[in-house]
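User: Can you predict the 3D structure for this chain?
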Amino acid sequence: MLLTKIKGMALKLVDGLELIDFGFALPYTWVLIGGSEGKALGVAMTLPEEIQRYTNSVIEPSLEAFIKKADSLNVIERTLGLAAVNAVSQYRLDLSNAKWVDVLELIPENAGKIAIIGNMPPLVRELRERGHEPYVFERNVKLWDRETLSDALEYHLLPEMDAVIASASCLVNGTIDMLLDRAKRARLFVLTGPTAQLLPEFLRGTKVTHLASMKVADIEKALLGLKLGSFRGFEGGNQKYVIEVI
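Assistant: Here is the predicted structure, written as structure tokens:
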């Protein structure tokens, strides 16, 4: 399980870091940590449709305790765990080789069949305007439109795809292993969105080729947006980046 591997690698990087604050919230769950070089904020998309029971086995919250739950079957624990992993990743991340561009810049004109995992309307609209015909898969029926395919079809259609752009919420809902396994011929596999704040070395040896996420430029402003449940309040002051997994 990829999440178990990521958890183990993240736990080796927590020395000198401490948990400052956290929140299981909408639209993003967040974890704030600090160390000798300052603070870092990690987030993970909260998926209310995945929640079964509102329980959490963490009695004494800590950075290490949260990360240990990153592969939990309990989605609340898993979401907090991934936010903690992302906080550590952002603290340790070297962006000297990053490109400060949007994920769209990765898509060549002759990309072939493109799978979009998780309906992302602005991205889908731009791809169609550029002449592509993306296959859009979505689990949450509230996000469906007439062109959206059920995520149940991913298993059957992904082997035909030449490129995959997946919302990193696939880490939160636990489908990442299936996606990587089924995307047999994809030359491009991008994890995108705020939940994709991972260190690229966590994904070496997988089919993931790029991470397209965002660096929090103003932590206090971003935190206020998160506490107010605002997409725009959180994302407005952040910088989008793309980094290659090599």
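The first strand starts at residue 18 and ends at 23. Residues 103-221+234-244 form a domain with the Rossmann fold fold (CATH 3.40.50.11590).
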